[in-house]
Write a structure and sequence with these properties.
Elements: E1 3-8, E2 23-24, E3 27-28, H1 29-39, E4 45-50, H2 53-62, E5 65-68, H3 80-91, E6 97-101, H4 110-121, E7 127-134, E8 162-173, H5 174-180, E9 188-192, H6 204-217, E10 227-230, E11 242-243, E12 249-250, H7 255-266, E13 270-274, H8 280-289, E14 293-294, H9 300-311, E15 318-322, H10 328-333, E16 336-339, H11 345-350, E17 353-354, H12 363-373, E18 392-394, E19 397-399, E20 406-412, H13 419-432, E21 436-441, H14 444-447, H15 450-453, E22 456-459, E23 462-465, H16 466-472, H17 477-489, E24 493-498, H18 501-509, E25 515-517, H19 525-534, E26 538-541, H20 547-557, E27 562-567, H21 582-590, E28 594-598, H22 604-611, E29 616-620, H23 638-655, H24 664-673
Parallel strand pairs: 1-4, 1-6, 4-5, 7-9, 10-13, 10-15, 13-14, 15-16, 16-17, 20-21, 20-29, 21-24, 25-26, 26-27, 27-28, 28-29
Antiparallel strand pairs: 2-3, 6-8, 7-8, 11-12, 18-19, 22-23
Helix pairs in contact: 1-2, 7-12, 13-17, 13-23, 18-19, 19-20, 22-23
Length: 678
């Protein structure tokens, strides 16, 4: 062993009680000192000399060897050199170089430590002290210049810097320390450290200062937690609200946050949103993310403590992200208090981590990425009990096994060519908690068979040919631009089933996130090739199709961005034709995520599809099943759609993870009812 670092860490402190265990950036000062030494490539071993059991245990957890410091060397008058010499004797070690490292410096750069050690090992110096370069003029209390002549005031650029000892570390030849009994001997050199690293903690004000600086100085590192809890306003949003002419409140969120939350949940991390406000906007965003939400909380700290207990989570392995003073309570309950960069100063000072992206601009995504980075790699496919299909990214949402069910409100042609009716159906889908709405897009001159174009139809707009009727109900660019705007305002994805190649080109110009192949298009290879050429994800319905026809479609579309939908194209669908076990057949045959497109009356079959593994559910929606049109009778009305989404979310929670365990709610009955015999 050539280089030994010794960290003296007494339990007593005049300025700050138990200062060496004080948290800075969520990490005790003694731990920060040990970590700096362990990361310095030139240091071989780290020892902490202490008289306090709590400090000793913390030091051991950080990776240091602990030397018990005797009482006679633990008082306020005992020198640091005495602690270093005692540690050398206790270890029976005689390294070439010994480093004295002080816990009172919260921001020691391992590179500075190594540089100072190399200067001694290379013979440049016998003793090196850390110091802050300064051009300050010093005065005595009597008004005399200490390091300058008051009559001659040279400019800063004309003066060589002097160095203020900052107490972070001292590097010495061990033989010289034993000979002289103190840290300065022979050739003494100064290792410059930057101003941001040079603060020494002597009193409570110093401690508050380094706590405030820690989030900005500490290097970002993975955040190893089992649960992430976030405030809403100022974290998911920019803390502003937008109110439209109808008095509806809207907020700005980042689409990237949704993908981050999906990745987080895939990695096994629990997510919860907590909000002081009771606001439908909060509930809507939580539904979109597929996470639970607690709203209208007067005492977030107590609610958080109870929730962690119910979930059986270790608070030390929980992150809470806040931005205002009402978040200080819950932040104090967890091991990873985190703040947004524009948070209240007290919140930033209490944070272990301050994010770089503001709320509403990717703060949640930044946090999710750092949490996922700390998670272990997922098991290989061979080690899994069953294969995991997908997921496929649709915008900011992942669709696949293990993700929240992607619920699509199929508006189709139920808008009857009325833009206002389309908007109302979009609102129905958003209010129910859907993630997307879907339309149908046709070029009637191409899609309507020649023999049907001239047939006369009775319509709500009077008597007209079938071609005129199809053209009357078809939306164009202006209508879809307004649909896209309204969907964006309501936080929904929108897309359509193109029935011909020009419709694919139209939807590409509208920049949809995904394309849907209606069951009628499975065998239209020209259409499929046009869709494959877009590079977008494709949702393929498989109604009225044989496996051979589906095989041919998959050969064109590929499987990388493909989601299949089991469907039976009977309107309305009788239960005996649902054949839901085909969901498993399609998953095993094609290795892609599989959902369910339903045309039945009621909810039971769609809910059963979810229990069988459907990753998305599509249902036609209407304001009233008695409305004129071919699809209304097999559609869900607003209340039915709301119940469907609600019950899907309940089923997702009830399915669990398949790991047999005793849940917290079983503990009391178990203790009361179970009789144990030996």
């Amino acid at each position: 062993m050539r280089v030994l670092a010794v960290v003296p860490a007494r339990g007593g402190s005049a300025g700050v009680p138990l200062k060496n265990l004080a948290l800075v950036g969520g990490v005790p000062l003694v731990t920060r000192a040990v970590r700096a030494c362990l990361r310095a490539e030139s240091i071989d071993q780290v020892v902490v000399s202490t008289d306090h059991e709590g400090i000793a245990e913390t030091a051991r957890q950080a990776g240091a060897v602990v030397v018990e410091r005797p009482a006679e060397l633990s008082g306020a008058t005992a020198s640091s050199e005495s602690a270093v010499l005692h540690a050398l004797d206790a270890l029976g070690a005689e390294p070439e170089v010994v480093v004295l490292v002080q816990c009172t410096s919260a921001f020691i750069d391992p590179a500075d430590l190594s540089a100072a050690v190399r200067r001694v090992l290379d013979g440049e110096a016998d003793s090196v002290v850390s110091g802050l370069p300064t051009h300050e003029f010093l005065w005595t209390a009597g008004g005399s210049g200490v390091n300058h002549d008051p009559a001659v005031r040279p400019r800063r650029q004309d003066r060589e810097p002097q160095f203020r000892e900052n107490g972070a570390f001292y590097v010495m030849r061990t033989a010289g320390l034993r000979e002289h009994g103190h840290r300065f001997f022979g050739t003494v050199a100064v290792q410059p450290v930057p101003a941001r690293h040079a603060i020494e903690v002597d009193d409570p004000e110093d401690l508050e200062l380094v706590r405030a600086l820690a989030p900005f100085i500490d290097q970002p590192e993975p955040i190893d937690v089992d649960c992430v809890i976030t405030d809403f306003d100022g974290v998911h949003t920019d803390d502003r609200a937008y109110v439209d002419s109808d008095g509806r409140e809207m907020v700005l969120v980042s689409r990237s946050d949704g993908m981050g939350v999906s990745l987080l949940k895939r990695s096994g991390v629990k997510v919860l949103v907590m909000s002081t406000e009771q606001n439908p906007v909060v509930a809507a965003r939580a539904r979109k993310l597929g996470v639970p939400v607690l709203q209208g909380l007067a005492d977030k700290r107590t609610v958080l403590r109870d929730w962690l207990s119910i979930e059986g989570l270790d608070p030390a392995r929980v992150a809470y992200v806040g931005n205002d003073v009402n978040d200080l309570g819950p932040m104090a309950e967890v091991g990873w208090p985190i703040a947004t960069p524009d948070a209240h100063p007290r919140v930033r000072a209490a944070a272990r981590v301050v994010l770089t992206r503001p709320g509403g601009s990717g703060a949640v995504r930044e946090l999710c990425d750092r949490v996922v980075a700390a998670r272990p790699e997922p098991p290989t496919a061979e080690a899994r009990v069953r294969p995991h299909f997908g997921p496929v990214a649709i915008g900011d949402v992942l669709v696949g096994d293990g993700e929240p069910v992607y619920v699509i409100g199929e508006i189709g042609i139920n808008h009857n060519g009325d833009l206002d009716l389309a908007r109302r159906l979009i609102d129905v889908a958003a209010d129910a908690g859907c993630q997307a709405v879907k339309f149908q897009k046709r070029t009637p001159a191409i899609c309507v068979p020649e023999e049907q174009k001239g047939q006369i139809r009775q319509t709500p707009w009077g008597e007209m040919t079938y071609l005129e009727y199809k053209e009357r109900t078809e939306f164009g660019r202006d209508e879809y631009a307004q649909i896209a705007k309204h969907c964006d305002e309501r936080g929904l994805h929108w897309f359509a089933s193109p029935w011909d190649v020009p419709s694919v080109e139209f939807l590409e110009e509208m920049d949809v996130l995904v394309h849907k192949v209606a069951s009628a298009g499975v065998a239209d290879h020209e259409l499929l090739r046009a869709l494959a050429a877009t590079g977008k994800p494709v949702i393929l319905s498989t109604g009225m199709s044989t496996l051979a026809e589906i095989d041919a479609a998959v050969e064109i579309l590929g499987t990388e961005k493909l989601i299949m939908m089991h469907a039976t194209s009977t309107y309305p669908l009788p239960p005996e034709e649902a054949n839901l076990r085909t969901i498993t057949t399609l998953k095993e045959r094609y290795g892609v995520p599989v959902g369910y497109s339903g045309h039945e009356r009621g909810l039971q079959i769609s809910l059963a599809a979810v229990t069988l593994g459907a990753v998305c559910v599509e249902r036609h929606i209407t304001l009233d099943r008695t409305m004129w049109g071919s699809d209304h009778a097999a559609s869900l009305e607003p209340a039915g759609l709301e119940h469907l989404v609600r019950d899907i979310r309940i089923i997702e929670q009830a399915l669990g993870d398949g790991v047999k365990r005793v849940f917290p709610g079983e503990e009391a009955p178990k203790a009361r009812l179970r009789r144990v015999t030996v």
